Sequence to fold (708 residues):
Amino acid sequence: MKLRQKLAMVLASAMIVTAVPVTTMAASQNGFNKTLSIVADQEITSGSGLFLNVEYSDADKVAAAKGDVFFINATDFEFTKEAYNHTEDGKVVAGHTTSTGAKVEWLSKTQLKVTAEAGELAIAIVGTPKKGTPAITVDGEDSLATSGKYTLTGSEVVTDKALVATAGSAKNISVDGEGQIADITVEEKTAGALKNGSVITVSLPNSSDLDFKLGSDIKVEGLRGLAGQDVKVKAQYRDNDKKVLELTVEGITSSTSRGGIKIKGIEVQAENPRYEVKTGEVKVTVKADKMEDAKLVVANVADFGVKLNVEEEVEVVAGKDGKTVKVTLEENAIASLNKRQDVYFELEGANIVKDTLKVTQGAEGILTQETEKDEVTGLTLDTAKLSDTKANKVVFEFEVEGKASQTGDVVLVASSRNFEKDIELKVGTVKEAVKVEAEAMTVKVGLKGQKGGKVVITETEAEMLPRGKEIVVEVAKDKANGIHVVDAKVEAKDVQIKNVKVEDGKVKFVIDRTSNELGTITITDIEVDTDRTVPEGEFDLTIGGSAISKHADDVITVKDFLVVGTPNTEDNNASNGLKKGTGIFKVGERKYTINGETKEMDAAPYISKANRVMVPVRYVSDVFGVNGKDVLFSKENGGTITIFAGSRVLQVVNGSNIALVNGVKVPMDEKVTIIDGRTYVPVGEMARLLDVEVEWSNETKTATFTNR
Fold:
């Protein structure tokens, strides 16, 4: 582009800019000093104290004070002429006396003229709002004021009703009709609507079985602008009609802000005391001057009874941490619960955690926990603490946890002599942490190294078996000392274990790493030793430890896992159930033989004064083919020996010549004797009692015993 062309364009631009007229931007901050409740055709008076504040910018305050002029226009609002043009000394003077910083002149119902006399103005707004959306518009054209529109209310004014009635929560009333209705609140939509002498009418339908009951005090609470005032109501029947209650308001002083009253304690009674009141909702109609009629539900007539509800059902994992449930017990009507008959709660399917009970609604101490051996057995509701004047509601919460073996629904059962039947409420479920499957094993009495059985522990979800926690598997816990688990094979899948050992008859191992999916632990080849003390029958297996439950004594039980069968008889072919063979004792010698094998005793046999061969009992048992584990010594009666010998159980007592054979008393011709800590028995008598043949050689002083 040539230089001449560029210069031409610059000159043209300059001409355009200089052709635009320069104006001074008006700058003031405008707004109402307060918000009022607006009712159509109800005048906003000087006493309302409503002002439109106009504050000029700092740069314009001096100039504005010299007589800046602007106009205020009204929409859906009419300015009160008398408020702006008033008489002084017989002359009409323009300007509202309560406005400050300005002269305000009334030009018409919808327009004011404002002449500023200061930099900050407070322009009184006095007039009557009309149906629609009342607003004030500042016309600041050719002035220093900012133009703008300002509504007097946030919503359209559509009614002249200045009061509104509402009801609180409907109260329960029994079928005998006695009780209170809900609180009734009457609120002002504009200040001053409620006055001394205002009459509020509350009516029951003619079809109602209820009447209003006078005699008790009806209380009134002042709200918002009327809070703190000594407001009361005078109650009476209208024209002696007990279904219509007239409440005359007293004690209200003037207020510049909206208020209201809450009326409490209105009572009702049965129209005919001989008949029950019909169940269902109780409705009333509330009327007052400048208020639309309000039909309100204020009560429910219900038959006697109680409701039991849970806020939300919970799911807990067996053996793990518990969760809190929140329960509500509520009377259907006043006096549904007998104050002399307490209510008892028991939890089925889970346990209440001790000291977690908390009452969030109800009298102090109304609910307590009952314990036994440090466990919560139930809860007791003290009905003597219930209210006589209302339908009671008690809200309480407690923590629920499931034991390792528990699974399924958790049910709270409420019982009382006052109830026709117990109330049952499902409050949650217990979910298994692991599932256990088992194959039982059968063992015989008196044999070692018996193997069998299978136990499979499977998680229901990943990581149910926590890292670092132990699992303990035990057979016949605390029930059979003669059963000894000596070994087992333990394998794990998708969960890692460590420190596998068999200790004190228990299989133990530790979770080394948690699972990604469902971990499985399999226990097989369980090796068991049994002695002759074990009775026939079935014995349980338990699975416990910190990996299974947070409580040390909490276990999963597998019923009848170990079956103890008949005694071992594979090598006992004699009729008495003992092994066949021959044993020889010689008086005065420690050596003895069994089936030709020479053994040695720690004390030699001797001949008693009654001419009977006395032998230490443990060696007698050995010769007769009795396992050493089947000979039991106790301090009972000064020393008692019990021998499980084949098909017989023999019991002898130190210093006694009476033996018990399978529970039957049998006399011996020599007493049992203890010498130097060894218990001697008459070996010949023992052979006779156990049906073992004996042959005595007087020449060699030898006793030979044969079991055929």
In short: The CA atoms of residues 496 and 513 lie 5 Å apart. The helical segments are 3-19, 61-64, 81-84, 617-623, 683-689. Residues 1-26 have pLDDT under 50 and may be disordered.
